[in-house]
Amino acid sequence: MRDKQRPELRATTVLGVLRNGKAALGSDGQMTLGNTVIKHSTRKIRRIQHANLVTGFAGATADAVTLLDRFDEKLQSFSGQLERAAVELARDWRTDKYLRRLEAMLAVVSSEKALIISGTGDVIEPEDGIVAIGSGSMYALSAARALLKHTDLEARDIVRESLELAADICIYTNNHIVVEEV
Fold first, then answer.
1. DSSP states of 52-117 as a string?
2. Which residues define the annotated binding site for Na(+)?
3. For a FRET experiment, which of 105, 122, 140, 157 has its CA 20 to 30 Å from that of 94?
4. Which residues carry a binding-site annotation?
5. Distance CA 23, CA 9 (A)
6. Which residues lie closer than 8 Å to 31 by C-beta, 6 or more apart?
7. Among candidates 27, 12, 19, which has minimal Cα distance to 129?
């Protein structure tokens, strides 16, 4: 629970799409504190596991970086098994006294899988191969589903277009977009 005296750091928009054996994950760069934009170009996606995975986060940056480090450790412990590492991270995140206080969500994509990992113990693999987290996630998700269904765009282009649309709607999302592909 957040302290009522501290302004809330708003999340972001992170979107991942699987298509034609490729995966793309992107995010905007906006960080807000209360009702003020404090940074336009925060980088919220990272490559890990020898660049075979791309991860993104929404929520508190320091918390997310801690979780990303733990996730990378889990991947190494389980020989790169994405699902096993995700489940173990979610379990630790939910049960560990220190980790359960962390306020973030993770999205992870490989060329074959897209997952959302949360602090409530959830590891979600969406049926449509689209992961979306953060304040503008439902706008980006809607756009990505429509583009996936009605166009032949590649995963990278779907992510970029969907994030651009989310930036036009969500006040916590901007158009400083970074997209990585695997």
1. TEEEEEEE-HHHHHHHHHHHHHHHHHTTT-HHHHHHHHHHHHHH-TTGGG--EEEEEE-SS-EEEE
2. 167, 170, 173
3. 140
4. 167, 170, 173
5. 29
6. 9, 10, 12, 37, 38, 39, 42, 61
7. 19
Cβ-based neighbour number of residue 69 at 10 Å: 11
Active site residue 42: no
CB-neighbour burial class of residue 25 (10 A; exposed 0-12, middle 13-18, buried 19+): buried
Q: Which residues pair with 32 in a beta bridge?
A: 37
- What's the CA gap between 72 and 58, in Å, rounded? 17
Token pair 């060329």 in the structure block, residue: 111
Q: What are the tens digits of pLDDT across the range 76-99? A: 999 888 999 999 998 888 887 777
For tokens 């994030």, the residue is: 163
pLDDT at 10 over 80: no
Cβ neighbour number for residue 50 with a 10 Å cutoff? 8
Mean pLDDT value of segment 38-67: 85
Higher pLDDT, residue 179 or 12:
179
Catalytic residue of the set 12, 13, 32, 55: 12
